[in-house]
Predict the structure.
Amino acid sequence: MVLLARQSSASFELDSESWQFFPALTAAGLPHAFSLRTCGIDRPPPVRELGLDPDRLVGAEQTHGNGIAFVERPTPLFYPSVDGLLTACRDVALKIRVADCAAVYLFDPEIPAVGIVHSGRNGSEAQIVKKAIESFRSRWGSPPERLIVQVSPCIRPPHYEVDFVQQIREQALGMGVRDFFDCGICTACHLDRYFSFRAEKGVTGRMWAVAMLPA
């Protein structure tokens, strides 16, 4: 990716009109981004700004479950029946789309390996973040204490009746994650920057969470 955020103590940075970045991931050297509402409802975010080919992003069906796929090559570009994508391949870029659910980034800088999971109410109840952490350990031997876990903007109380970010936090910390970061931003509170399926009654767009390993 070309655009990388500067290191900061803030919860996030806006380094372009279209993307925001998370300082914990930037400091760890992970190329990543999270798109903003300014990208528009009816068109995909401008991933070419990040140095990515939009036709080479690997995505998931996102069925609100806890299925996870290991991506070992740039194709296929679509994984059905899963809500999480993990990879240790440097020529793979991952994509998860959200409107109120959380995109949760996971990064082991030592392997290196990266993942993004889609975790809303159902996914959090199905413990997809815990499953992803277990998958890092079983696949690559990544101890949870070495992982960096970052939660994106998502809907939160009082705009939503379930605090699924707390469930995500409990899963991560319960597994032994030490570096857990939550941007603390509610999508429904900031409709100028983010889409919210709940607040906009389903007539809205999607933010993209993207990540790939450094070259």
